[in-house]
Amino acid sequence: MFPDNLTFSIANWVNGWVDALVANYGDLFRQVSDTLLLAIVQLESLLRATPWWLILLVVAVVSYHATRRVLSTVLITGLLFLVGAMGLWDKLMQTLALMMVATLIAVLIGIPLGVLCARSNRLRTVLLPLLDIMQTMPSFVYLIPVLMLFGLGKVPAIFATVIYAAPPLIRLTDLGIRQVDKEVMEAVNAFGANRWQQLFGVQLPLALPSIMAGINQTTMMALSMVVIASMIGARGLGEEVLVGIQTLNVGKGLEAGLAIVILAVVIDRITQAYGRSRYEGER
Amino acid sequence: MKIQLDSVYKIFGRREAAALELIRQGRDKDQVLAQTGCVVGVNGLSLSIEAGEIFVIMGLSGSGKSTLVRHLNRLIDPTSGSILVDGENILAYDMQQLRHFRRHKISMVFQGFGLLPHKTVLGNVAYGLKIRGESKPVREAHAQQWIEAVGLKGYERKWPHQLSGGMRQRVGLARALAADTEIILMDEAFSALDPLIRAEMQDQLLELQQRLHKTIVFITHDLDEAVRLGNRIAIMRDGQVIQVGSPQRILNEPADDYVDRFVQRYRNRHNPSLNLPGSMIRNKTNI
């Protein structure tokens, strides 16, 4: 046995800290929560109000723009049609709305952090272990305090998703910028480009394939959180999976699971195609 | 005097100050490395470069020549010493002045070309002008003119990866020329090219220089190239200049054994039949 006099617990300290946070800043968090909720709800109702064929058309146009191939476009659109045919269209739109908001927030946080990381080795050494924690910490651990702060529903689901899904984007943005050819950066410097010109004119465009791979990973990881998100009250495909489990309805669970996979495949194909850079594609 | 360097030292490593002290006391590179773990890149070097000349800095790899040339546009800052360009101390420049200096006064051609892979030939050549804020029509018209001057007409819309090595370096050269700077630094600019293309590029550079009268600082490890291009040559070794002079002077009066070894090899290549015992004296006259 481990000697008792050497053990200690941080549980009380953390509990006290979270309680104080809820007591003192609860209102502030509620406000943030309400604003975010409004955005999600509006996006969701927009997606659900849009006729299904229009959404399929938009997806078709976007995937053709990304892949430039008719076969891929037909396959991607066909798969989404299949989800509708399984009677899960409404749920799909709910999940899509949640994902889009989570991905957008992850991008807004992830890309700037990745850029800063590439600039400063010090920030990188601090941030990298933090990202490891974000990815490996079981999500229920931070779901509890998030629930206490934001209440049940979509908003804590989004927070949990962002915490889990942002790290790969930060990593890959950092990597992409660091991998820009040293001599190219030297040349850009030698011509007197300032930091802004270096970042937007050279580093970000050259890191784009890597950044798109990061966005791809982020969306994939966000999708893998869908079921957990449903456990704390987010509607959508994850909810179907949950109901399937709870009622021992294997078939229903599988249908919803397949729909999640299809959504993943669709988003994956499109983001990957955008990641392939045009100028090298013509080789 | 266009560029003047005075006792410039560059030391790489954490214990710069200690290493600088040692090297000033006359220790050599290896001793400094052993005692402080610092590498001496440039060792108390003084040089002056005239306006309008092609000044070649020659040395083997590790001699510090590429490090030295990066001091002239401050891609590398010296540990100690002074660098004057047109009588101005460029080491005193703040970031803004330095950018202005790099945009208007000095440009550079790189060994690995350093082209922007996501821009076309036209975009690459116009880059220096874009950075300093010229409007699109102005910079494209100007870039077009230099693309033609280096013989790349018809390739404006190509991407760098579609070009051969020689053509890529023409883009690099055009980019430096389009910036309209008085000084051009060329760091082993032709070293990555095969011999025929290299000779062509050398001819082209000489031809352009006849019209342009730029101040060109050209780095090479090849004495053939140095002799062909240089108005004056400086020979570097271990971060120091061993000899400076006209190509003639270097070939005729090598300052020490190190320089002499280069000269011998040069002669062997250019007139092997004369390289018999006792033929050295005759040989000197036909360089």
UniProtKB/TrEMBL annotation, chain A:
Coiled coil: none annotated. Pfam families: BPD_transp_1 (PF00528). The chain crosses the membrane at residues 46-64, 71-89, 95-118, 139-166. Residues 92-271 form the ABC transmembrane type-1 domain. Signal peptide: none annotated. It is a multi-pass membrane protein. Keywords: Cell membrane, Membrane, Transmembrane, Transmembrane helix, Transport. SUPFAM superfamilies: MetI-like (SSF161098). It comes from the Bacteria. It is found in: Cell membrane. CDD domains: TM_PBP2 (cd06261). PROSITE patterns: ABC_TM1. InterPro entries: MetI-like (IPR000515), MetI-like_sf (IPR035906). Belongs to the binding-protein-dependent transport system permease family. This is ABC transporter permease. It comes from Pseudomonas asuensis.
Automatic annotation (TrEMBL), chain B:
Gene3D superfamilies: P-loop containing nucleotide triphosphate hydrolases. It holds the Pfam family ABC_tran. It catalyses: a quaternary ammonium(out) + ATP + H2O = a quaternary ammonium(in) + ADP + phosphate + H(+). GO terms for molecular function: ATP binding. SMART domains: AAA. It is an enzyme of class 7 (translocase). It is a peripheral membrane protein. It is found in: Cell inner membrane. The keyword Plastid does not apply. Keywords: ATP-binding, Cell inner membrane, Cell membrane, Membrane, Nucleotide-binding, Transport. Its EC number is 7.6.2.9. Residues 3-263 form the ABC transporter domain. The complex is probably composed of two ATP-binding proteins, two transmembrane proteins and a solute-binding protein. PANTHER family: GLYCINE BETAINE/PROLINE BETAINE TRANSPORT SYSTEM ATP-BINDING PROTEIN PROV, GLYCINE BETAINE_PROLINE BETAINE TRANSPORT SYSTEM ATP-BINDING PROTEIN PROV. Belongs to the ABC transporter superfamily. This is Quaternary amine transport ATP-binding protein. It comes from Pseudomonas asuensis. The lineage of its organism: Bacteria, Pseudomonadati, Pseudomonadota, Gammaproteobacteria, Pseudomonadales.
